[in-house]
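Slide 14.
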Amino acid sequence: MQAARRLGCKQVAVLVDPDKATPHHLSQLLELAQRSAVDYFFVGGSLVMRNTLDTCLLFLKQHSTIPCVLFPGSVLQISKHADALLLLSLISGRNPEMLIGQHVIAAPYLRASGLEVISTGYMVIDGGAPTTVSYISGSSPIPADKSDIAACTAMAGDMLGLKTTYLDAGSGAKIAVSEAMITAVNQHISTPLIVGGGIRTPEKAYASGQAGADIIVIGNRLEQEPTLLPDIVDAVRQSQQTPEY
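Slide 15: predicted structure.
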């Protein structure tokens, strides 16, 4: 991730919720992801109701070479079958359990797992709809029009040594993180910037990349229309090119 940012390369991550990942959907998604040269699978969800995390990861690993990165909603979502894990610290909230408490519990398991652990400043941005993470954490999202708060929060996480920053409007967001906020945050951090939630069109993916996002995350939209993936990936790749005036 860091190397890609230094080179100015824009990347795409497909978010896979194990609860919703039927074999048919996964097979179709895998074929499209490999054809489009997707960079990562982010695997996880705020709640995993069925014991399918390992099964989902094994299926992805057996049928592709795309790195699988855990995007855990809790300490229960750890699996040795992944390649890496985003260790999310909810820096946009004030719940100590989501800032460090759960991490203390998970630390021995993560150290023994052999997974690459990527410390991540996780920031929930108001996407126009309530999110599961806000409800569970008891934390309010950063207002969509408060780019200065988002920038200062991300800056603090960067100075604390977190390896990446994640702006998330949440699953099922009505509106994605604005280009203004992405640009403001990107200008104040030195680490890769991940942006997800509410990105439904190639045009929005392109705009997010142009604004400064290093990794664009696509999730819910692909559950409804997986064939849109190649167009979104193309748009993200194009966003790394310097626009002509």
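Speaker note: The chain has ten helices and eight strands.
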